[in-house]
Write a structure and sequence with these properties.
It contains no helices and 19 strands. A hairpin with a 4-residue loop joins β11 and β12.
Length: 282
């Protein structure tokens, strides 16, 4: 139940309220083919109501008038996948998914005062695959790899803040592909651990028109630390280096910032996190 009470007379009475209600069924099944392999399938319906931030402004020119006409989004979610143990040291997961959404709440525009305006897109569709492989080798060496491929597009034409948005345009702010990998090593006699990480993100569009994008990026991180168990105490000391090669790249985007054209937010330079923790087990 979203309710706005306006006691400021300068812009008239903009009070109002709206209620949302929905039942969302979910069903799933798992089949254990062998002791090492199982497959699963899930289906469910989704329901997402507007937040206070999304409903705060009706349009870029209407000031603080609340957007109580913003509809909740509804979705159908399909998923099928498999989990398998490969040999004695590797686990692999793969998932295929499809999400069909109606009235998805999207950032429509940003006005000169940096206020984000939200609207409903008619239909969107997301489909893709997620893959992960987790392995443990001799001498306390381990690796982890994950890959996500996502095709996220508008599934019908709709009128956005900057004109007609065509069926087939990519949903801004979504990556087509993401890759993560790490290799780690532990030396138990000293409680020492170290890991080298790599992450790649594809280019990402910044508006519904797909007229501009942030380029792809690849960065590397390093983490290391020590751990001690003394009686009932557990102590950890750790160091993390993010963006260790000090690469310049876009860390995030402001979707549909048509008012200011300030789509891109830079990521941090090489940065460090040093910390320690202590825990007592009763």
């Amino acid at each position: 139940n979203l309710k706005v009470k306006d006691n400021f007379s300068g812009f008239g009475d903009n009070s109002g309220s709206v209620s949302y209600e929905k039942t969302n069924p979910v069903i799933g099944a798992t089949w254990k083919i062998t002791p090492a392999v199982n497959v699963y399938a899930n289906y469910g319906k989704g329901f997402e109501t507007p937040t206070f931030i999304e409903a705060a402004y009706n349009s870029a020119t209407s000031g603080a008038t609340p957007n109580l006409t913003l509809k909740p989004s509804t979705s159908e979610n399909f998923e099928i996948g498999s989990k398998a143990f490969i040999g004695d040291n590797t686990q692999a997961n793969i998932t295929l998914f499809l999400v069909k959404t109606s009235d998805e709440i999207v950032a429509s525009s940003t006005d000169a005062a940096n206020r984000s305006i939200f609207a409903n897109a008619n239909k969107t569709v997301r489909k893709g695959v997620e893959l992960s492989i987790d392995s443990n080798f001799e001498n306390n060496i381990s690796t982890y790899f994950s890959y996500t491929l996502l095709n996220a597009k508008f599934d019908s034409d709709f009128i956005g803040a900057n004109g007609l948005i065509l069926d087939g345009n990519r949903i801004p702010g979504t990556y087509n592909s993401q890759i993560y990998g790490e290799i780690a090593w532990k030396y138990d006699p000293l409680g020492f651990n170290v890991a080298f990480e790599g992450r790649h993100n594809s280019k990402v569009y910044v508006n519904d028109l797909n007229s501009d994008n942030a380029p792809s990026s690849t960065i590397f991180n390093l983490r290391t630390g020590f751990e001690q168990n003394i009686s009932n105490w557990n102590f950890k000391e750790y160091l993390r280096i993010e963006n260790m090669f000090d690469k310049e790249y876009v860390g995030s985007v402001r979707v549909n910032d048509y008012g200011n054209q300030r789509y891109f937010e830079p990521a941090a330079d090489r940065n460090y996190l040093l910390g320690l923790s202590a825990a007592y087990k009763f």
